[in-house]
Amino acid sequence: MVLKKMIDRYKAIGLKMTPQRLAILEYLDGNREHPSAEDIYRHVKKRFPTMSRATVYNTLETLRKRGLIMELSIDPMKKRYDPNIEPHHHLICLRCRNVLDVFMEFDVSVPEEARKDFVILGNHIEFYGLCSKCRNASHGEARNKEA
Ligand SMILES: [Zn+2]
Ligand SMILES: [Zn+2]
After folding, report:
1. Which of 12, 16, 53, 70 could form an S-S bond across to 82 if both were Cys, CB 3.0 to 4.6 Å?
2. What is 18-39 written as a DSSP string?
3. Of 124, 84, 128, nearest to 106 (Cα)?
4. Rounded mean pLDDT for each run of 10 residues along the chain, 147 residues in total
5. How far is the CA of 85 from the centre of ligand 1 (A)?
6. Which ligand number lies closest to the CA of residue 99?
7. pTM of this prediction exceeds 0.70
């Protein structure tokens, strides 16, 4: 989402924009890394050393509740956040937990007998594997073992 739109919507909710909150929004704007709250905290703290974890967590929670960011449960170790709220899918590296976006629609459907009366409103597909960096690293390891 474009930063200005995010700021407008943030203000429209009736929340006060503080420099700290603005820094969080700026960091999230166009961010494709699917950062965790801790990642965001560490980054913003560089500019605002007095920033508390609570400020970051509360701001993220507010943004999530208002639908300005998505919370992802793709990482068992921590919640990750996605400022891109357009429907999309994810490629997840099992080794480094790098997450890549896939903006494509897949033709998946759940047969009537399996979904009973359930109404499907959307889907999110997680593909697991190894990113190129990790694949190259493990190839390197294999070569080292052979040598
Ligand atoms: Zn990786
Ligand atoms: Zn994403």
Report:
1. 70
2. -HHHHHHHHHHTT--S--BHHH
3. 124
4. 77 84 92 96 95 94 91 88 94 94 90 91 92 86 56
5. 23
6. 2
7. yes
One domain for residues 7 and 46 = yes
Domain boundary among 36, 65, 85: 85
Q: How many angstroms separate the alpha carbon of residue 35 from the centre of ligand 1?
A: 15
Strand 70-72 with 89-93, pairing: unpaired
Residue where a domain terminates, one of 31, 58, 85: 85
Predicted local confidence at residue 37, as pLDDT: 96
Whether 78 and 108 share a structural domain:
no
For residue 136, how far is its CA from the centre of ligand 1 (angstroms)? 9
**Residue 79 amino acid letter:** K
Kindly give the distance from the C-alpha atom of residue 35 to the centroid of ligand 2, in angstroms, as a whole number: 10
Domain range for residue 55? Answer: 1-85
**Residue 103: nearest ligand to its CA?**
2
CA of 34 to the centre of ligand 2 (A): 6
Give pLDDT tens digits for 6-26: 888 888 878 788 899 999 999
Residues 30 and 73 in one domain: yes
